[in-house]
Amino acid sequence: MAAILPEDRFDILYHRYEGDDVKVDGPSILGRKAFGKHTSLYANYYTDAVSSASIDVRTYASPYTEDRAEYSFGADLLFDTTTMAVGYTNSEENDYSSDTYHFGVSHTMFGDLTTVSLGFSYGDDEVRQNQYDQDGNYAGNNPDFGENGKEDLKRRNYRLGMTQILTKNLIMNLAFEAVSDEGFTQNPYRSALIEDPGGPIAGIASAVSENYPRTRTSDAFAIRANYFLPFRAALKFEYKYYEDSWDIKAHTYKIGYTQPFREQWFFDFHYRVYQQGQASFYYDLIPQGGLQTYRGRDKELGQFSSQGIGIGVSYEFLQNGWWKLDRGSVSFGYERMMFDYDNFTDYYEGTPGNPNPNFGKPFSFNADVVEVFFSVWY
Amino acid sequence: MTYLRLLLIVAMLAGSVTLSGCGIKPWVKPYERANMADPIMSFARDPVAESYKNHVHQAREGARGAESGAGGGCGCN
What we know:
Chain A is mostly beta strands and about 375 residues long.
């Protein structure tokens, strides 16, 4: 727990998410190296390759593919019992650019039993809207979107945390984060649905543009505890409460268990439950004549719950070191996620000859999340 | 929302000031911290994997914040 610099390590990870006809995969490469006793630098390269025919796309749009590339770099500086961290992240898609600046300070005190931390991030995003030709190929950004073809979003994150060793077997973490968004908070493509007998969507609805408030502030509070069992294994608990100015309230519960085996093997298991209430301007189907100023049909703003069951296996090798390496490990992680939406109706009719059997029912889907990564410490 | 935020900030600051100000001696001695130093007790043992999991959750859920790591962009839908 004493203030120390993060370990020197290099990780290369492949990730894949697959669910609701959406596939997102790509690599993430993270390297970290200390220079002297007081400075540690890191760099991360991360990409998402997205191909999507999600429920929104199936209902009223066309499948698409897109790529996102993210670069991060930063430094941790250690002064006695205080660590300062600075960082920068850039993320680019052909319709979204994002720059984020991070600053944080943490201080270890009280005989190294307590660590308090403060953090601030400022994000400056630019949102654009893509156009596609008749064959569905990318044809540049829409010049008529927003102001001069773009919209802005400013993000500010304020973090406060405390980690406390309570007994020789129990450690606890409290985390609080307030986030404030200002600008274009919505998706440039998604539509809301309004009741329209004989309309183009399943003969019952038409698409109308979404309109979200231009500000959103949120508070999240998390408490985590890790307990070292009488034999070498760890039990982990987490609870998070969330609420925001759009009236969304959410609870996250997670329990985890880590079991090492014969020094080289680590097995992780977890079960996670997430429950969320809807935003004040969320409508599954806007009643005829009931169009409101603010409206949205993003299912992530609706009332829903999800469950995740995950396993992880890591195998460590070269534990006695080799050449300039201290050790290495190879890891595999899998999580099955199950989403159940309470007020997001499946309005996808299906194709001629292959009608959607779930039409008109509350939407639900399962997703598989896979991570494989290789790490070395030096 | 504001009350929750204020309450938390005050509780955390008051807690840490009280602990450091009263001269209470650390009750878990340095030689008793072997279990705490075990990597299985880490809140985020593998930063690269932790950051990816947070990204997946942020893309699929309305809630955000109070997790480990930070990132920009979206890559959602």
